[in-house]
Amino acid sequence: MKNSVFIATSLDGFIAGKNDELDWLSTFPEIDHIDTGFNEFTSRIDALLMGRNTFEVVAGFEEWFYKKPVFVWSNSLTEIPEKLQDKAFLVKGSIPEVLAEINGRSFKNLYIDGGKTIQSFLREDLIDEMIITTIPVLLGSGIPMFGELPKRLVFECVKSTRFLDKVVQNHFVRKR
Hints:
By secondary structure, the protein is an alpha/beta fold. It has a single domain (2-174), classed as Dihydrofolate Reductase, subunit A. Helix content is 19%, strand content 32%. Strand 3 (47-51), helix 2 and strand 4 (70-73) form a beta-alpha-beta unit. The two termini are 15 Å apart.
C-alpha cells in the first residue's frame, strides 16, 4: 500500500487562495500545455482519496478529468451528486476505517488530495511520496499545504524538474 500526493503550491506554501481561488495556478498558462508528469503519476495509482472541500471544488469544474475512482472522505456529506455517482464514492470514519474500506476494495496505491486530508495523513505519518510543483507566486494567505505535526517527518528529494524555466517540481519520498 502506498499513499502519494501530487499537488501545486504557491511559493509561500499555499494550495489555494483565502477564498479557495485557484486562478494563480495559471500564472504561466504555457505550463498547462506540457507534460508535467501527472499522467505518469496517475498511471501508478489505483484510486484517489480527497476531502469534501476539494471534492466540492472539482465537482464544480466543467469537465471531470479523473480516470480512476474517487473516494470522498467526509463525515458530513450525505450523498454524491447524481452526475458523479458512478465516478465518486463517499467514505466516512477515521483514517484507519477509510483506508480499510478502500483497501478492502483492492485499491492499494492512493492519490491523497486536499489540504486537510493531506495534513491528516501527514499527522499519522501515512504519506509515502509527495510530488510538489511550486508556482513562483506569493499569495500572502490562503489554504496552507502543511500544518502542525506531532513529530518530524524526513523525506528525501529523489528528483527535481524545472519546467520552461518557470516552475519547479520536486519529488520527495518518505525516509523511514
